[in-house]
Design brief:
The chain is 43% helix and 16% strand. The chain has helices spanning 3-9, 15-28, 32-38, 44-55, 62-66, 70-76, 78-84, 109-119, 130-141, 158-167, 205-213, 218-229, 275-282, 297-306, 340-366, and strands at residues 86-91, 98-103, 122-127, 235-242, 245-253, 267-269, 286-288, 313-321, 324-333.
Length: 367
């Protein structure tokens, strides 16, 4: 039985709430329970109880997670703990060789085998919700959570966040870019020139279209965008838009530039005048130089993270689902402004990503 079915059967949530959580899962990732909690439909304690009922394993309570065995944490190590989303709690009784381990996926046999070899003991799984596991991984190992898993506003407060942002606009109003209209191009091999010193193109424009059109998961969509960017731009960042913030999802930077921070840790407020804000608020692509005069705080922070100087030109393309911006695709070129042909291709890829999201949402609701 799946979690959604169990919750519906016990009237813990309604069908419309399940569909809303499935939609958010497709758009923003995370497990179904994570999205239910973030939307305010259930709380972590209730989710923990249902995960325990579903899996048949005991709950890793906050008390157990606070009092983990430091020696076992050192034995497992931060990398494996993060990869497996696992936290060793302690030995089950004195003189035993069995260790209780909190796991987001307690039925993952490969993970259990790896944990047994790494820790050198038999493993008894305990179940823990994803959000709680990420919090304690950060607490015990100092592993920063992805910006996507850090909520900056109450669920349902999107309109309130929009209002707050409006009050932060400069006194003379937001500076908007010139009208930007491009006819999307259909499948063809891109003939646009490579940026100076860039790497070779890894996939053609047509291949990127096909990968997005046939994507079986949101990660396949962003994979195609990253591969398309290589050899065409000097940097790409795909942002998630939540609670009035642009949250880093995936990024790529052409060598020799070295990012100074993980893109997934990046959170940029959509306030003031910026290229990101313009594309978000208008729902239209932005191309050219950032509109915020010499300060450009949002872009300056982004460039610092990417290890870049001010680029010659940038493009920001929104991906909309049901008239709401869910992603922003940011690219820049350092030496010369990106040619219009590449801007047109990005617009087309964004449109295909929108169609792919809608297809995945329909599939999730029908499963």
């Amino acid at each position: 039985m799946k979690l959604g079915t169990l919750l519906l059967r016990n009237a813990a949530i309604g069908l419309s709430q399940l569909e809303g959580a499935l939609r958010n899962q497709v758009l923003y990732g995370g497990r179904l329970g994570t999205n239910l909690v973030e939307l305010g439909f259930i709380d972590l304690e209730l989710l923990s109880a249902y995960l325990a009922e579903l899996s048949g394993f005991p709950i890793a309570t906050p008390t157990l997670l606070d009092d983990v065995n430091p020696a076992l944490l050192d034995k497992l190590g931060a990398d494996d703990a993060h990869a497996l989303r696992a936290l060793p709690l302690g030995y089950l009784g004195e003189g035993t060789d069995t260790v209780a381990v909190a796991l987001v996926e307690p039925t993952n046999e490969a993970a259990l085998d790896h944990l047994a070899k790494k820790i050198g003991a038999r493993i008894t799984p305990y179940v823990v919700p994803e959000l709680r596991a990420l919090y304690y991984l950060e607490k015990h190992f100092g592993l920063p959570r992805r910006a996507r898993f850090i909520r900056t506003a109450r669920p349902g407060s999107e309109s309130e966040a929009q209002h707050d942002r409006r009050r932060m606009q400069p006194a003379m109003g937001m500076v908007m870019p010139p009208a930007f209209t491009l006819e999307p191009r259909r499948r063809r091999a891109s003939q646009a020139p490579l940026p100076d010193g860039g790497v070779g193109q890894t996939i053609s424009y047509g291949a990127a279209c096909e990968r997005i059109d046939t994507a079986s998961h949101r990660e396949r969509i962003v994979d195609a965008l990253v591969e398309y960017a290589k050899g065409r731009f000097d940097a790409l960042v795909v942002f998630l838009i939540r609670d009035g913030n642009a949250l880093g999802w995936r990024g790529w930077v052409a060598p020799p530039a070295q990012p100074r921070q993980g893109v997934e840790e990046l959170s940029l407020p959509l306030g003031g005048a910026s290229a990101l804000q313009s594309a978000h608020d208008t729902g239209q692509p932005f191309t050219g130089s950032p509109p915020a005069g010499t300060a450009r705080p949002t872009e300056t922070r982004l460039w610092a993270v990417l290890g870049a100087t001010e680029p010659a030109g940038l493009i920001v393309v929104p991906i909309l689902v049901k008239q709401r911006v869910v992603n922003l695709i940011y690219v820049h070129a350092l030496a010369d402004p990106p040619p219009p042909e590449l801007a047109a291709e990005l617009v087309e890829l964004a449109g295909r990503a929108q169609a792919a999201y809608l297809r995945l949402i329909r599939q999730a609701r029908g499963s």
